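User: Can you help me understand a structure? I only have the sequence.
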Amino acid sequence: MNPKETRTDLIVLLRIVWEEIMLPIVNVLENVLKVKRRSRIWLCPTAAFTSIPLHAANPFLTQPDRSKEPCLEDLYICSYTPTLSALVRSRQLTKKRVTPSFVTIGQGQPGAGKGKALLAVDSELELVRELVPATANRTTISGDAATRAGALEALEANTWVHLACHGKQDSEQPYHSHFVMRDEHLTLLDIMEKDIPRAEFAFLSACHTAVGDKETPDEVIHLAAGLQFSGFKSVVGTLWEVDDSVAKHVVEAFYKYMFHPKEEGVMDCTKAAWALNCATHAVKTKVPLEQRMVFVHIGV
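Assistant: Let's start by predicting it. Here is the structure, written out as tokens:
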């Protein structure tokens, strides 16, 4: 999908996806398999479908008598998985419980030639830090400390990570896709060369972190999949460009659902898909359609 498509084009695409692809699947889930509404489902798209927001399929009906017909996200909690084996592996790893530690990594001033300044990054990091339970060991890495080496070390040392910066998918060399740090890029290859067995959850608040290579879409070579390959069981990534000033609303709502005060500091990465679904519904009046559906959940 081209992120520069008009809103009208986007609505038409999602309506087609709903009618031609997802509605028949929903009929099977409800009428044949008897899957209850609001259950989790996993999407494993292939070929050209890897760049289409299947989770956001919507009838967009305007007739008064049918305007409340539910869309896919009203019916089910959607996650993606790059491969079935990746999902099985992530599920097996969730059985191992570890003491949680949470790091927020942000680079809003990447330097000349590395992209525009992201003015909302520091406030986003502070917001996330405030919402993370005090029972977790919390660390923030930003500014001059947010280097390639510093970010890679933080990924290895922590179980939960929130990363806010520029992200870039390299269409010619997918393994060179990267997060923009102060000095050198943190590449997909850097991440995939690390084994991070204690890792649980990553929120990638950066552009193009969950979109694969156009030439080899079935190989699912992107940043979010790379983190899952390295050990993160649950990952939130993005399909196209993210407006950092608007996306902050999604981030805030997401963590409020993830860490409800009544749960007394419980950190469960398997809640991420549900929390993202709730968050995108909660910010409909604040965040435009294309910036709500840009976020996708991958894994358990």
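Now, to help you interpret it: The chain has two domains: 7-86, 90-299. The longest strand covers residues 101-106. Let me know which part you'd like to focus on.
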